[in-house]
Amino acid sequence: MSKTILPRPRSHPTPARLAPWVHGRRLWVTAATAVVLLAGGGFVTVRLAGPLPAPRVVQLLPSTYVIPGQAPKLPWPAKGQAVLEVEGLGGLGSSGGHKAVPIASVAKVMTAYLVLRDHPMRTDEDGPSMTVSQQEADAYTGQVASGQSLIPVNAGESLSERQALVALLLPSANNVAHILARWDAGDEATFVRHMNETAARLGMTDTKYTDPSGLDPATVSTAGDQVVLARNAMKVPALAQIVAMPEATLPVVGLVKNVNKLLGQGGIIGVKTGSTDQSGGCLVFAAETTVAGRHLRIFGAVLNPGPAMSDAFSATQNLIQAGTGLQHEYRVVHAGQSVANVLGPFGSGTRPGLNPGIRPGGSSSVGGGGTDGVCGRAWTIGWMASDGA
């Protein structure tokens, strides 16, 4: 009898079972394909029908808060321009419009900012050296005759970068501004071009530089633009260190004093004075104050409130005294308070709550602006994990 051997039926693989955690509430899938590992070392591919929906955020707090208070009445100068703001909180106001006007030696802030950008220097360094040329030494006699602010220099004299910046920013030496421009960029025209390029990059749309010292009345700016520069310049540690010095010793000239007579008064820590017949008295300043344990920095500028530097000093003192009392802490949320529900595609999620100092999964902030005379305090928000939606 013949024996017929039938082909063995082909077995079909048992459908893979997804691991239990795949079906749990905590699974987050961010790709169109999920790969499931099998115990035997193989794998199967499970393709989703389409992209997962984005997480949904349900906000639990009001979109805006009205902070009680009255608009501040600041003692703005009757003439010229002025601006006052608190770093990180916003502006406190301005006066005198936004027309570009001569700024005199306030222009030297940009000169110092550029030099330190191109030749960075730590606060414990003197930086590289430069040599005074014969032409620069010869020009000194004529500069003295024109009544400029200067320090004496000799041909062949060596100045460190720090010494030159001290001469530029404390006694406000015009001749050193030209020496620095030549040393930094090769020639003064190139340096002035870099000044204007940097002003444009910083958003100083109403500013035009024509010289590195500010003596030329065609070098013009606004109080607002100069506050923008001051904020950036004071972030450079070596520059902030130098403008805070009341005096220093330089070669040839000896002891020099900072012409900013308000330094150390009312919390003022810099930045630069300026005065010519065309500009009147000018001062761009930075001051520090403390409110509810938080250190705040105030920036401001006054341009031509009167013909003399004393006018700029007086206007600045009035603004600083009034401005430092306007900041207050106002808590709009509290630690542990839920601010929103974040729902994932499978219904699970996290509940962001206030927990300053804990940032396990991300962070946000609640800030206050300088409206109605009250500046709110910014608080850090931590993300607290939660099983529930």
How does this model look, in words?
By secondary structure, the chain is α+β, with helices and mostly antiparallel strands. It folds into two domains: about 55-65 and about 330-385, no CATH class; about 80-325, 3-Layer(aba) Sandwich (Beta-lactamase), CATH 3.40.710.10. Helix content is about 25%, strand content about 25%. It has helices spanning about 110-120, 135-145, 160-170, 175-185, 190-200, 225-235, 235-245, 310-325, and strands spanning about 35, 45, 55-60, 80-85, 90-95, 100, 130, 160, 220, 245-250, 255, 270-275, 280-290, 295-305, 340-345, 350, 365, 370, 375, 380-385. The strands form seven sheets. The protein has a five-stranded antiparallel β-sheet, with no helix packed on it. It has a five-stranded antiparallel β-sheet with strand order 5-4-14-13-12, sandwiched between helices. α1 (about 110-120) runs parallel beside α4 (about 175-185), α3 runs antiparallel to α4 and α4 packs across α5. It is globular and about 80 Å long. The termini are far apart. Mean pLDDT is about 80; it is low at about 15-40 and about 355-389.
